[in-house]
Design a protein that fits this description.
Layout lengths: L5 H26 L4 H16 L11 H22 L7 H17 L5 H20 L4 H74 L4 H27 L15 H11 L5 E6 L9 H21 L5 E9 L2 E8 L13 E5 L2 E5 L6
Parallel strand pairs: 1-2
Antiparallel strand pairs: 2-3, 3-4, 4-5
């Protein structure tokens, strides 16, 4: 039986508290003699925007829609209440929902929409005291100051996290660019090896042409083989350089092989953690050099990330499995890490000329 993770417990507590606060809003509105229906509609829109699971969220329910519609509903309710009955109460549930929408707008909305969505959410929150006590009342001014402080705190936190996301994206892009340059440098070394062999064999063929012409065929065959290998290596590696997808791992360099992975695992094992290599019998030693090098780089980077971000890991497993022309590389550990993602483990599928990967943290 799996125990709940701390993140799951915190998330469940937050959802429960938000639902309880919304129930308090409905009970308070009913006890004050105001209609429950408008409050229920506003709360339903806000709760749906905040709590709707991402995996079941329709495509049209974007961040701007999720943040602006409930905020506009609150503003319309405030305007209607002030024009008809003069005031209408509010409770903690409505305020918390609007703060959540403000956080979502600042952190996740597209750049052109973020100011608009944040302004509407903050404006809706600041109108709640006016709706409850009327404009100019002392209670309204006091709660307005509290609302401004909350808006500043929530908006500042969301903005800080958004800037961290941007910096992380820029860092990942720079890392990919640097590794592509490293791939190009290694490609030069790898192809230079074949070209040097071609040059030497060509010089030998010229010398043999006059004295031993009948022995030229094996030399020419060697030249053809070296040229074919060099061309194939260039095509495969340049194909990787051209890949610019979001999930593309850039750690493919023609350095290392499957035997080197065993050395990596043996060298990484220490007194506080154990590394196990599980290599399926179907994994062939005759895979193209670039595929073996890609697997080596993936495992090397993953073990490095384990040391950096999951120092508490005690059991680390490196898996290699081949399915037809596809090599699957997986690295798992039991550490908590800095950004845990329960139930997920990174995998990489390596083919000639292509690399695909999944996972929350590349290299873990």
């Amino acid at each position: 039986m799996r125990s709940a993770s701390p993140q799951g417990c915190i998330r469940g507590f937050g959802v429960g508290a938000l639902l309880a606060a919304s129930a308090v809003d409905l009970a308070y509105a009913d006890s004050m003699g105001f209609g429950v229906a408008p409050v229920a509609v506003v709360l339903a829109a806000g709760l749906a925007a905040v709590l709707w699971p991402a995996r079941w969220r329709p495509r049209w329910l974007t961040v701007p829609v999720r943040t602006t519609v409930p905020a506009l509903g609150t503003l319309l309710y405030c305007a209607g209440a002030l024009l008809t009955e003069g005031r209408a109460p509010f409770g903690p549930g409505e305020a918390i929902v609007l703060l959540c929408l403000l956080f979502v707008a600042v952190r996740h909305a597209p750049p052109r929409w973020a100011p608009v969505c944040a302004f509407l959410a903050a404006g809706a929150l600041l109108t709640l005291p006016v709706r409850a006590f009327g404009p100019g009342a002392e209670e309204s001014l006091a709660l307005l100051l509290v609302g401004l402080v909350l808006v500043g705190l929530v908006g500042g936190l969301a903005g800080y996290l958004r800037s961290m996301d941007y910096r992380r994206t820029v860092a990942v892009g720079e890392t990919r660019r640097a590794e592509r340059l490293a791939i190009a440098a290694d490609l030069h070394d790898f192809v230079a090896h074949h070209v040097t062999g071609i040059l030497v064999q060509t010089q030998m063929a010229r010398m043999m042409a006059a004295s031993r012409p009948d022995e030229l065929d094996p030399v020419l065959a060697g030249i053809e083989r070296a040229a074919t290998q060099a061309l194939a290596s260039m095509r495969r590696t340049v194909g990787v350089l051209r890949e610019t997808g979001e999930g593309e791992p850039a750690e493919r360099r023609p350095v290392g092989d499957l035997v080197g992975i065993e050395d990596l695992v043996a060298g990484f094992t220490g007194p506080h953690h154990k590394v196990t290599l599980r290599r399926a019998p179907t994994v062939s030693d005759d895979l193209p050099h670039e595929i073996q090098a890609a697997a080596f780089r993936v495992v090397q980077e993953a073990l490095t990330n384990v040391r950096r971000h999951a120092a508490d890991a005690t059991e680390i497993t490196v898996g290699l499995r081949q399915d037809a022309d596809r090599l699957e590389v997986s690295v798992t550990d039991d550490g908590r890490g800095r950004h845990p993602a329960p139930g997920r483990r990174p995998r990489w599928w390596l083919r000639p000329g292509r690399a695909e990967g999944t996972g929350d943290r590349p290299g873990r």
